[in-house]
Amino acid sequence: MTIGTLYLVGVPIGNLGDMTPRALEILRAVDLVAAEDTRTTAGLLARYGLKVKLESYHKHNTRQKGDKLRDLLLEGRSVALVADAGTPGISDPGSDLVGVCADAGIPVVVVPGACAAIAGLTGSGLCTDRFVFEGFLSAAGKTRRMALEQVASERRTVVLYEAPHRLRRTLSDLAQAGLGGRRIVAARELTKLHEEFLRSTVDGLVSRYTEDEPRGEYVLVLEGLEAYEERVRPEDDGEKAERVERAARERSAALVRDGLPVRDIARMVSQETGLPRKEAYAMAAALRGDRPKDDV
Ligand code: SAM
Q1: Of 143, 132, 144, 134, whose CA–CA distance to 169 is shortest?
Q2: Pairing outcome for strands 32-35 and 79-82
Q3: For position 294, what pLDDT does the model report?
Q4: Is residue 125 located within the same domain as residue 226?
């Protein structure tokens, strides 16, 4: 008997978003849709004229429903898992079921859709090269304090989720953790009518929300320590010289490996990094194992 496939299907995070044609095709074809809230998903499916059997799968029944879904998959049924919004498994149930299925040798296929964290980060204008997703900070106590300490020392951009009724507290806790001067972007109501990116500092948002009532859903994108330090503390001459040296050495080594003549390497490296031509020549010659020359 062929076993079934578990599809992880992304759904919109706001009513301006849409299902992808592939997601619709899969939801139409599967035997069963496991949904965080069957009423919410029934509404979504009705919008697309889909009639599919629904089964609830939420954080309070992951263990027993996970086993049931695994057994159905092993019997050859195909199952799609959807969350109320966005990507299943991202601050939503899903990862447990994927683990159970992976352990049982059941194929898992992802059908990506929206994810609030990625949408918020994308529009934030903060560094997206390297980031961490922290999700919801724990509500209280030692774990919250530890999480805040970790966020404060994190070098990469940090992405958080927050509910409107807890936004003020989270902003003031971030300020208390010494992050008042960090840039932060509150991305609210993404792909909804009142979508908005509030670009400020932590202190700036604290004072804004002293006046305004937080409304809607929020992704908070916080500047990491590295970007903050670069912004508030311009590099001194020694640091600049070190950075230029490092960049020139890496580039020279690559060009030496490519077999370019030392004179050409010196010209290129000097132009690209700002290292004086004579020093670039000596560096390239040394990397190639030549004896240093005076004439460049
Ligand atoms: N699985 C979802 C995803 O892929 O983004 C996240 C679900 S989590 C339970 C809900 C949180 O996601 C909200 O409290 C909010 O922080 C964030 N969120 C969801 N939809 C959003 C939207 N349209 N705009 C801003 N944040 C949103």
Answers
A1: 144
A2: parallel
A3: 52
A4: yes
Q: Are residues 141 and 177 in the same domain?
A: yes
**C-alpha neighbours within 13 Å on the C-beta side of residue 122:** 8
Amino acid at 181: G
Residue 149 backbone dihedrals phi, psi, to 5 degrees:
-65, -40
Q: How remote is the CA of residue 221 from the centroid of ligand 1, in Å?
A: 13
294 in a structural domain: no
- The answer to whether the CB of 162 falls within 8 A of the CB of 134 is no
The helix (run of H) or strand (run of E) holding residue 219 is strand 218-222
3-class secondary-structure state, position 101: helix
The rounded distance, in Å, linking the Cα atoms of 200 and 214 is 15
**C-beta separation of 74 from 106 below 8 A:** yes
176 three-class SS: helix
Q: Are residues 167 and 253 in the same domain?
A: no
Q: 196, 216, 232 — which closes off a domain?
A: 232
Q: What is the mean pLDDT of residues 217-237?
A: 92
Å from CA of 92 to ligand 1 middle? 9
13 lines ligand 1 (CB under 6 A): yes
Q: What is the pTM of this model?
A: 0.81
Mean pLDDT of the chain: 94
Query: Locate tokens 């503390």: which residue?
Result: 233
When divided into structural domains, the chain yields a total of 3
DSSP category for residue 61: T
Q: Is the CB of 89 under 6 A from ligand 1?
A: no
CB count in 10 Å sphere of residue 165: 9
Host H or E run for residue 186: strand 183-188
Which atom of ligand 1 is nearest to 191's Cα? 23
Cα–ligand 1 centroid distance for 209 (angstroms): 20
